[in-house]
Amino acid sequence: MTSQLTASAANPVLRVPPATPAAAAAYFGASLAFHADVSDVAAALAADGDPGFVVLDSRSTASWDQGHVPGAIHLPTALIAEQARDLLDPAVPVVTYCWGPGCNGATRAALALAELGYQVKEMLGGFEYWAREGFEFETWEGRERRTADALTAPVDSDDCGC
Predict the structure, then answer these.
(1) pLDDT of the chain along its 162 residues, tens only?
(2) Between 105-115 and 80-87, two packed helices, what is the crossing angle to 10 degrees?
(3) Is 96 exposed, middle or buried (0-12, 13-18, 19+ CB in 10 A)?
(4) What torsion do the CA atoms of 59, 64, 66, 67 make, to the nearest 10 degrees?
(5) How far apart (Å, rounded) are the C-alpha atoms in residues 72 and 78?
C-alpha cells in the first residue's frame, strides 16, 4: 500500500486526487449547462424545425466577413449592451462563439448577455472548429465547406459517437 501511495504522490495526474463522484457530477453537469460543442450546434441547426436557440458571432466585422456560421447573428461583444435588445429575443437562448479555443471572446459575449438577462451557452471550439469539422460556413464571397480535419472530426461519419 505504501508503494502505491508513493507512486500516486509522484504522479502529476494524481498528485491532486480526483473529485468525489458527487462533486464530479455537479461540475460536469454544470459545464454542460454552460457549453455546447460545434457538432451538437450543427446537428440542431440542420434538423427540421426551430432549434430553440440563436447563434451569435461576437467577432469583428472583418472576422465575420472572413467566415461565419450560416444564420448566425453578428453582434461584436463591444456592442452587446447597446444592441442586444434590438437583435435578440430575451426568451430565446443564445449560443455565442468567437474564433476558437485560444480566444475568450465568446466567453466575454456570454457574460455580457447573461448580465442583460439572457440564457446563454458558449460554443466550444468556435469558428475554427466549425470549419475544421467540415461544416458549411458563409463568407463575404458566399458559402464554403472544407474537408473535415481527421484530428477533429470522424472521417466518413456525421457522428463522433460521444
Answers:
(1) 555 555 556 789 999 999 999 999 999 999 999 999 999 999 999 998 899 999 999 999 999 999 999 999 999 999 999 999 999 999 999 999 999 999 999 999 999 999 999 999 999 999 999 999 999 999 989 999 999 888 888 777 766 777
(2) 70
(3) buried
(4) 100
(5) 17
